[in-house]
Amino acid sequence: MLVLSRRRDESIVIGEDIQITVVDIRGDKVRIGIDAPTTICVHRKELREAIRRENEQAKAMQELPNYVTPAATVSVPKRHFG
Amino acid sequence: MSAWPKMAKSQEALATRDEPMHVQTTRFGTVEVGNDRLLDFPAGLLGFSSYTRFALLQPDEDGIFYWLQSVDSPELAFVVTDPARWCDEYEATVRREHMDVLDLDAVGDARVFVIVNKYDETLTANLQGPLVVNLRNRRGMQIVLSDQRWTTRWEIARVQQPVPLECVSA
User: Fold this and answer.
1) Given phi > 0 = left and psi -120 to 50 = alpha, else beta, which region is B159?
2) Beta strands in chain A (DSSP E)
């Protein structure tokens, strides 16, 4: 990993199109501004990781369970494909 | 967002033009899938980026849950559902970059569904990482919503306890 030190209002450029700016530093929190093309998705890392983990867990489902909703009782029949 | 719509007549005609695909699955054996139920996820799903081809299987007429079955891997399948059925106020913000990837002209051409999970006796839906599909070209992607209102484990239902077939005396 490339590690750079930046002060407030200083920036880092990635490639041709991406710019990262230190907008504010307050205590142990850094506010980071990201300038990037709209084709690039920018997210907090833990958000993507949480979704990845949910996918990993979800693939273990082997069958549709019978379930009840808070409002009504509905049971799902065992699978068959019409 | 409404539930997955019935195929229009013209789309049914298209589907019968080509041979339906036979998809190998570990849960259901070999399943015949019409082309109208084959989806292309160019980036796969998060953590499953190389699995790009999926079949949407509908187990029953109610259309509450579907299976998103990988065409490339028989063991890989996800239970999915329409989030609007479970969360009235749910909004999946489809951004410009998503529309470009999916070749989406209008948001109305998109259908959103979410992956279902089971924790103990509770079914949850991942509202934070919904799947968006362009109905016109059947291209889909999993998107990350930064909206803090939604969670990856949105409770949707409780699992019904099985009724014992006979009483066993002590």
Assistant:
1) beta
2) 11-14, 18-26, 29-35, 67-68, 73-74
Distance CA A30, CA B128 (A): 24
Q: Do A51 and B28 touch (CB under 8 A)?
A: no
Q: Is the ipTM of this complex over 0.85?
A: no
Residues 53-72 of A with CB under 8 A from B: 53-59, 61-70
CB neighbours of residue A73 within 10 Å = 9
Helices and strands (DSSP H and E) totals, chain A: 1, 5
Q: Please, are residues B41 and B140 in contact by the beta-carbon 8 Å criterion? A: yes
Give the span between the Cα atoms of B116 and B65, in whole angstroms. Answer: 9
Residues paired with B29 in a beta bridge: B25
CB contact under 8 A, A73 and B65: no
* Chain A residues closer than 8 Å to B146 by CB: 43-44, 47
Per-residue DSSP letter, B158: E
Q: Which helix (H) or strand (E) holds B25?
A: strand B21-25
Amino acid letter, residue B170: A
Q: Output the tens digit of pLDDT for each of chain A's 82 residues.
A: 999 999 999 999 999 999 999 999 999 999 999 999 877 878 889 999 999 999 999 999 998 877 776 644 444 444 444 3
Tokens coding A40 = 């690039």
Count residue pairs from A and B with Cβ separation < 8 A: 118
